[in-house]
Amino acid sequence: MTTPQPEPFTVALERMNRFQEPEARAIIDDLGLAPGSRGLDVGCGVGLYALWLAEAIGPRGRVIGVEPTAERVEAARGLVGGSSGSRAELEFRVGDGTALDLPAGGLDWVWCGDVLHHIADTPAALKEMARVLRPGGLLVIKESQALPAMFLPGHPELEKRIQLAEIARGREEAGERSFQERRQRTPESLRAAGLGEIAVRTYVLSRRAPLDAAARDYIQRVVFDRNWGPRLDALLAPPDRALRSALCDAGAPGAVLASPDYYCLYPISVFTARTPA
User: Fold this and answer.
1) pLDDT tens, position by position, 188-227
2) DSSP symbol at 34
3) pLDDT, tens digit, for every residue of 38-47?
């Protein structure tokens, strides 16, 4: 497989958010967040979800986005800015999801998107999110690919082996439980944190040729080049590496993204819970 030029993680994160944007806005709309409400985005990344949440609750509301690194906070500020006349007050700050610098009971809702499975001390993070919510407040955990996505239509065996390699590589960061397992155990974690009214809804993104720029950029640059690239080489057999390159390299004669019949399926699961009233 060809080795692409590395790009900052914030760029990859923005690509993922742009890919998800139509369904992301639908997910937020389905939550029915009250106009003028106060909310928190834990692990806000480059700030796009915080922006869409702020737009959903209108100018009388307030959204705080927290990230553990100043680099990502600056990226969010640079990409989406702060307040605007048509959306909620929007603030980005450095913060730790397991030790939030916020008073107890002051928020109507907390959003945590594609982040909880990265936090080693999941119970501590959920207890902190619950602490800053008012009684009956809403906690939203959004997880992409609690179910595996499909990016290689017609090649299920190869894609399954690539996914297993991703799980194995992720254990180096995740520890005993893989990221996939952490995502799938979200309801159990919410219950253990003392939350109730636990629900789950899964949205399936479908993209097909001709792909728009957001879909093509995410699938090629993030999925194929970054996630499935050289980081998985040692975990794939030589025939699988060769077929992966033939299908996923942008310049390959048989590149799947060049097919007029290409399509992909990508699930997003939204887990919701409430603090005791």
Assistant:
1) 999 999 999 999 999 999 999 999 999 999 999 999 999 9
2) P
3) 999 999 999 9
For 235-251, give the DSSP string.
Answer: GS-HHHHHHHHHHH-TT
Rounded Cα gap, residues 79 and 107, in angstroms: 25
133 and 275 Cβ atoms separated by less than 8 Å = yes
Place of tokens 């998985």: 232
Residues 6+ apart with CB under 8 A from 203: 23, 26, 27, 267, 268, 269, 270
Q: Which of 50, 119, 123 is nearest to 89 (CA)?
A: 50
Whether the Cβ atoms of residue 202 and residue 267 lie closer than 8 Å to each other: yes
**Token pair of 63 as six digits:** 């959204």
Q: Which of 184, 47, 44, 173 is nearest to 119 (CA)?
A: 173
Report pTM: 0.94
- 31 neighbors 140 (Cβ within 8 angstroms): yes
Taken in order of first residue, the domains within the chain and their CATH numbers are 9-274 (3.40.50.150)
CB 126 within 8 A of CB 97: no
Per-residue b or e along 89-128, where b marks 16 or more CB atoms closer than 10 Å to that residue's CB: bbebeebebbebebeeeebbbbbbbbbbbebeebeebbeb
For the chain, give the number of residues. Answer: 277
